[in-house]
Amino acid sequence: MAKRHPSFVCQECGAVYNRWKGKCEACGGWNTIVEEDGAASPMAGPAATRPSRAKGRVFPLEGLSGEIKEAPRTPSGIAELDRVTGGGFVRGSIILLGGDPGIGKSTLLMQASAALANRGQRVAYISGEEAVAQVRLRAERLGLGQAPVELASETNVEDIVATLSQGRPPALAIIDSIQTMWTETVESAPGTVTQVRGSAQALIRFAKTTGTAVILVGHVTKDGQIAGPRVVEHMVDAVVSFEGDTGHHFRILRAVKNRFGPTDEIGVFEMSDLGLREVPNPSELFLAGRDMATPGTAVFAGMEGTRPLLVEIQALVAPTSLGTPRRAVVGWDQSRLSMVLAVLEAHGGLKLGMHDVYLNVAGGLRITEPAADLAAAAALVSSLSGNPLPPDTVYFGEMGLSGAIRPVAQEQARLKEAAKLGFSSAVGPAPRVDKAKNGKAERLPLATSAIGHITDLVAGIAARRRKVS
């Protein structure tokens, strides 16, 4: 019998070494390498349990065209969840759901499983972290105690697969969480890279052969990344992140990867005493309670996938006596703020070198699209000048390093959402020329002040200040 040599595996990225190291050369993590046995292959096991075949088995090949016997998707019954997944759960798909502790992952999955089970579908909820009585207490608190959801507390993957294979295949199986699962084919502790990878592979094989949609709950690290090897994110069909700030009652469900739908859609929920409540019109809630007479606030007309979203951007520019002024931002990219400040100084004629700058996206939302450049710049200029912006105006537009304001996508949808919420004007880039209409510009639903350079924005705010005074 060949002698087995232990392997040393990084718990962050899954890199394998033949000896222990303090720092992983692949991801740069310190003290993340742990000794494991049998880490070379997650499918390794005793030789007697592995089938022995002299040659491969011939299997039939089929074409892309053909009859689809089953419905491609199973709606969950929660509209915001279906929006993110692309219309529902695809049969045989694997979804990896990550989020901070206490953000509401188990609550969302309990509500989704109850809604699906109440429509006659078989749903199984497997908890590896809580006892059955604890899960029942949460279901009673949410008012879902009577839902016909099959519940169990188990961590052995082979036992889970054997149990779920009895009777008709479940429409949905929830594994909470994948870090607590372990498989007999791997000789290492639960939660290690090898166990997580081996357990995920076994559950993926079960989903593909039975048509059951499986949701794997994953823990996250301190920087918001899903813990465990990144190879699991490549193995699954969709990776969904549940975001939110514990200081706010809004929760954002965002698709990071989706093989069967878009990856730029978001679902908005509001945490209440009875669980998560869907927010069909998040713009109205994000703008609720804003102070219209305060300098440094601008309303940004943004897009999240196909959904237009209006959100307030707040800025504070204050003089400082420190040698190095502070630059703090919440809900936006730090490097993006630095670029906007540099453009305002170089091309807008503003002196911000002796001022602290604070920028915040109200409501706990995180903005990633570059169309927020103009709204952030307007809020910064307004705060520096002490002049409030018009309360009935929205801002959007991408800013170049030369100070030019560039057009953005889906301008019509942004303006329609602003008009629906009572805004009467917009400030943005010049509308695009429609070649199909003899070179005429698009007809916009709102009166739009087109600006081509950042100096136009600064001059407009300065002119408004003189008019008000």
Automatic annotation (TrEMBL):
Position of sequence motif RadA KNRFG motif: 257-261
Binding residues annotated for ATP, in chain numbering: G99, D100, P101, G102, I103, G104, K105, S106
Region (Lon-protease-like), start-end ranges: 356-469
Record has Zinc as a keyword: yes
Family: Belongs to the RecA family. RadA subfamily.
NCBIfam families: sms (TIGR00416)
PANTHER family according to UniProt: DNA REPAIR PROTEIN RADA, DNA REPAIR PROTEIN RADA-LIKE PROTEIN
Protein name: DNA repair protein RadA
Organism: Microvirga arsenatis
